[in-house]
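Hey,
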Amino acid sequence: MMRNVSITFAERLSRWQADTEHALDRCLPASTSSPARLHEAMRYSVLGGGKRVRPALVYATAAALSLPQHTVMAAACAVEIIHAYSLIHDDLPAMDDDDLRRGRPTCHKAFDEATAVLAGDALQALAFELLTTDSDLPAKPAIRLELVRLLTQASGTAGMAGGQALDLAAEGQPADLATITDIHARKTGALIRVSVLLAAACQPDLSREDHDALDRYARCVGLAFQIQDDLLDIEGDPLLLGKATGADQALQKLTYPSVVGVEAAHRKVAELHQQTLAAIAHFGSQADSLRDLANWLVLRQH
């Protein structure tokens, strides 16, 4: 299915990933500075892997709004760092108890549980430090405050943390479509959505119509992304995924396929895909990168 992605987009995505890796390397503490083991764990968890989906969404949205990439780079790094912290904590024995992440030992396996907890805590703080101190982000205080507000909301009980709490509470419980949709919207969708909204917030002249269109795009692509993730846990290749499949079923996790079935889940992904593209139709060719990203995320095999 990845053959559907144009070479041009593949090259653009590769550049975005390389730019993000370089920027993350610069903003993370050196592993040689004290406390060295904590800094090493932070760098281990953030660098050298991952599709960089969220930074790509930041850059693609910036492109659609004619914003230079360097003006949103810190926002892209901040949301990716929040994502990395969430993965560290999700992998802990008290949460999902995973041994592998991106084909190598999870942070608490490579280091220890205490260091993993602290690495996640420190990464969360670093993300907000970037939004308040980076010199390339818009200098207007109201924009900086809005960036912090957006990422805080997406990370907290209304977003990612709340989604994880609901996910844990739902284990072994009867299937319920409203509950799984809410979990997905918070746990995964919130960071996908905020990736788009962070870039949008850096464009002070953005119309309400364009903001709402980008918001619809982000909500639809976020849910489609997570349902596809649920499907890959059932149908995916562990070698491509870099982790074992079947974990959701083993933990009796509430997933979209477990509620509506595999075929209905595939249909929902296709429906959301079309809604995603329709949301940004009026942007014309300027939003081609957002369209390419939606196609890539929905059709991905890992």
